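Fold these two proteins, one after the other.
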Amino acid sequence: MLLSYCYLMCYNVYMKGKTAILILILVFLLSLSSCSQHVHEWTLGTIIREATCTETGLAMQVCAVCGEMHEIETEKRPHVEGQTTTISPTCTEPGAVNVTCLICWQVISSTTLPALGHDWWPVEGSYEPTCEHEGHDCYSCSRCNEIRIDVLPALGHDFSGPVERIDPTEIENGMEFTRCKRCSLAQCVILPKTAIAE
């Protein structure tokens, strides 16, 4: 409908002898016709906003055939590897090797370094357990100076030695006893007096 109307206008202008206007209208009609029938051939035009490594860019595309324009989003640029920073691990906390971007300073790669664990060394303050009392082993970490105390349970008496005997008499009780091998504590059994002979 629009094209028919434009052609009618061209005919009227031609009949009035206005050639320059007729040429302009024909160019306009040809451009309308070509835009409705051709495949756009897009070329990159003006950059509106440069892309960075953290944000997309914005650019104008122009059709090489009809001159139509529209905006497009351009891809982010890749990060540029910059400074490498090492965070040393401790006895209990892991460390890391971090690489930052030279442009935006974001960490772009990170490698975890495992925690070292404590390096225990014996220190003063340790004492051995006895038959009735606990003992303690004391340690200090060579890296962080943390102290560790291990409780050693009491050993208990060891009455596995030979049985000693004192025979009873008519006057006094007798005794059987064994001594603890560690602390010499005696475990006794009383033997009753012997009967008086008649």
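Now the second one:
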Amino acid sequence: MNDTQAERMVHLLEEIRDGQRLQLERQAQALQRQEELLAQQRERLAGLSQRSGQAGQILEKSAKVVASARVLVFIVLPFVVLLLGFLVWVLFARVHPQARRGRVMRWQSAVLTLTMDAKTKNPVRRVMMRLISRMVQRALDKDLSALADYVERLAA
């Protein structure tokens, strides 16, 4: 080996050494960057776990609200329906007092009094009587009007 070849080898070895140093520096930079990214990721995960904890608390609160709403529906709603039914029953009992009084029709020489009284202790039948009493009253009014016309034609 001569000096030029030796110098060339030394020069090549120096270039290899410089390349390895550069590669090690770049790897160190890459590792530093990875550590930074890992730290950022850990911060994000910590924030997410905190948010998921808050979300869990919100879900627990909403579950309590739903449970109380269920209790409210199953307990209070029947009472409200019964109260509305009672109010409707009272309204029909007070608004239609004609169902309790008799109808009086007068003709020239005769008086016809029609009194209809139906009583029951069964609440369903009472409601049904209240509901159909107006319809029955109208039908009876028509029949009595027809009877009055017939009596007036006979008298004439």
